Amino acid sequence: HKTRVCCFPRILKMVDAKLLLPPTRFVDIYEKEYILRKESAPLVTVIDRETGSITSVPVAEKKIPGVSTNLGKSKDIYGVFGIIQLLGSRYLIVTTEANLIGKIKSASIFQVAKVEFLSYNGSAKRVDPKDREFINMIESLITTQSFYFSYDYDLTLNTQRIYSFNKQEMPRQIWQRAEFRYFWNCSMMRELITAKAHDWIVPVMSGYILIHHCNIKNYDFDYVLITRRDHRRSGTRFNTRGIDKDGNSANFAETEQIVIMLQNDNYQISSYIETRGSIPLIWTQKPNLKWAPKPKIKNGYESGPMEATRLHFKDLAEMYGEHVLVNLIDQKGSQGRMGNAFKHAVEKVNDKRFKYVWFDFHHECRKMQWHNLSKLIAKTDQDLEKFGFFYAEMHADASIFEARILQRQNGCFRTNCMDSCDRTNVVQSEFARNILHRQLFKLAITKKEPSGQAFEPFSGDLEQIFRNAWCGHGDTISFLYSGTGALKTDFTKTGKRTTAGALNDGRNSLTRYFLNNFCDGYRQDSLDVFLGRYLPHRNPKKQRPKSKSYMRIPIVSFALVIFSFFAYGYLHNYATGGMPTENSADISAQEVTGFKYYKNILIPFILLQGVLLGVFVKGVQATHSLFVDKPQLTKDD
User: What's the chain's average pLDDT?
Assistant: First the structure.
């Protein structure tokens, strides 16, 4: 065969974009205006800092009307993240640092690394004290390094949807054809959209992107993994569960696996889609200091028309077609009741495009029996084959309208567990493994027809590339929802459970417990500010400092320790017949040694401590609202 090579530079790992692609966008800071300009662009965008008006002016004009004296400041930027109105000022948010992730075909993909807030009032860098906490909230989300953008590639759309546009219907601007649910800075872009400042409206998606160059037997190709998180019901683990009345699901994400190969100036492109999301019922599981709070389905929902579930299924069918709903939760206890309710909902909606599969992950894989995942693969293999994947060919210089679409994906797998993080990631990676073998065979990169069996390994370095990609993907999605990396990633990364992995799961579980109970209210409020669900300037009396309510627990604990100290003294004095004198001290000590010490002092003290501990735990749980950090800015579910 002829060696297959690609015509653009390979990026082996994420790098600071300035090292390879210096910024070509700038913001000039004036006393009364901000001017946004691009190299070689015919227009500049002028933002009036006093009125907030936005206008586009030809750069060829010698003098831009209304522009005041230049303060001599110009910033290199990678774009505008958005504009937000807070309590004290409006702010222009610009992306000042970015990481270059790689390229999809010839389009560069960036990760937001740092933003800067430029105030409309006074000095550009001046932050009004009333706005500091809100800015901290937004920055806390951006520093997760989970936001991505591209000037030339619509990251909010999967490959099949991009290639489904025809030339007459496709909007010219990327933001005009962007998928709203994955357009995370949409609310911050409203003023620029209204002003039609097209050059500065760049959709930002939240999730995970990996681009890795691979080689199998001299066949070069790119392996791309993209996960797009839906912002319509985004939130934190216990504060946001299930679906809302409009059918939007918590922790919903679309994951796309792409293989791109360039051979003799011809691209071969293959794409596979699967999704995850919370159990599609209206239910809650509010944090209450218990390890696993009891989930509650909305009163009357199961006996009602289940309209929200129906809307969710309608949305899924319109986006992806037929579905297999893979439920991985336990078939007993509170999870069993949730699973039965889910099954009942599927039966009641009665949409023939949806098939329900309940696979009790914990039961089937108990005692390290991970090979039992093959049962699920065998059960769903016909559907994997039926749904297939997207495949197209096109010349390297051709537009997407000239691509030959040879195969489409006709259905989708939607996977969930309780969090749709840990078990879900393991199973999704196995579905993706199964399909990737078929993609490679379709592109003639591998010659052996896929067996369809679970855990079938890849050739060469691709096996570890695949494992690392899905491990990183699982950690990122889990971190954004639960606050820690995913559990069970040792299996995803190595193919087996390890002692180190089990210990890491224990640490992550304890960390989740603390974060979900004592920190997630603040994180939820941060998301609500970021996404425009809460508008600070319309609620000027509300502030949101970080909660430290958990500090009440050690205060109560300290009081109990002091009480225990006095209780021990009382028991000792009681056993020795009262307060000892100087002459009777030695005699009293002798009288309570040995059996009498255990009987009269130690055993009663231990029993008292047990009672106190029980009362303490029950008391704290009963008054959990005093300790748990709850969202404060928006109305609770």
Answer: 88
